[in-house]
Amino acid sequence: MKDSSFKWFYRFGLLLLALLCILVFFKVQFLWLPVIYMFLKALLPFFIAAFITYLLHPLIEKTHDKGVPRPLAILLIYIIFFGGIGFGAYKSYPIFVEQVKDLNEQLPHFTNTYRHWVESIHDRTTSLPNGVHEKIEGSIDDVEATLNVWLTKVAEGLKSLITSFLILIIIPFIVFYMLKDFSSIKKATAYVTPKKWHKPGERFLSDVNESLGNYIRGQFFVCLIIGVIATAALWFFHVPYALLLGFIIGVTNIIPYFGPIIGAVPAAIIAATISIKLVITIVIIIFVLQFLEGNVLSPLIVGKSLHIHPLFIMLALLLGGEFGGVLGLILAVPILAVIKISILHIRSYTLKH
User: Fold this and answer.
1) In this predicted model, what pLDDT tens digit does every residue of 278-317 receive, in sequence order?
2) Which of 9, 10, 196, 281 is 20 to 30 A from 119 in CA distance terms?
């Protein structure tokens, strides 16, 4: 009886000691957090390069299977990918910068229009009961606060992108060496992994690649098509900043279900300062794009690679947005896919043992 009591006391002491160590660890985060941040910043180009390598490697394998020598296949896909990005950036960069500059100059006009709307809403709601009037004004304040936060994040993101330009330059070189030595990297990974994990690990990674890889590649291709079509449609209907707004619509389209709505907000806000007719035009364009994506592009390009019910995807998006903001929305579905495959593999393993 005494031994049993001593064991529980010993375990309780260990638990308290572990909690104390965790508390001290987080209390001194000012010491280790900058170091971790520095390492993450240094490793960021490698993470981005690894992701691009993951996207391009299947194309290289398919090209190689058709009889093209592997070095030539790597060089061909590499040049097409980065050459296409470089050519697109070269052609669109001056227009993009001009539109951003013009938008910055027009901000006072948009601000005055917005203030006029707020004053109009305030005048029209003064006759309502005090509780309703206060709630409407509170909602306007909340929207203003949210817009300020988003604009601050966008400005900080653009600033960090500019300051990281020199780091991003080395990504194409890292991608080239990763593609060239892909088989060597696989062998090195297998070498440092215990042998008993080789076959289960290969099956797990194969299932993840089959489900998640097709989804990611297809989703990026769909976003590119939607971005191009959106830009062309906005330009055709003489919507200001067509390239900038089309780029936003294409990027946000990577978020399932909510992406088109998020991407439509900036275009609708700018159109609302011009005419109601233009707002209706924007709504119709977004509706057509969403219909095209949901009924033609996604089924044709992405397919049902995830095999996850839409309700679970929506739940993952809500949780991702709550915990990680925009980044959480983007990563929610891939993380959900990996979790699903992990659960299936764990279940299969436990049934066998």
Assistant:
1) 888 888 988 888 888 877 777 776 656 667 777 788 888 8
2) 281
Residue at a domain's end among 191, 215, 250: 191
**Separation of alpha carbons 287 and 301, rounded Å:** 20
Alpha helices of 164-213 — where are they, by DSSP H? 165-169, 171-180, 182-191, 198-208
Domain end point (choices 142, 176, 191)? 191
**Buried b / exposed e across 47-73, counting CB within 10 Å, b at 16+?**
eebeebbbebbebbeebbeeebeeeeb
Based on the fold, state whether residues 128 and 271 are members of the same structural domain: no
pLDDT tens sequence across 174-192: 888 888 888 888 788 777 7
208 & 264 share domain = yes
Rounded to an integer, the average pLDDT of 136-146 is: 62
Q: What is the pTM of this model?
A: 0.69
Q: How many CA atoms lie within 13 A of 223 on its CB side?
A: 20
Q: Which two tokens stand for residue 285?
A: 């364009």
- How many Å apart are CA 350 and CA 32, to the nearest integer? 39
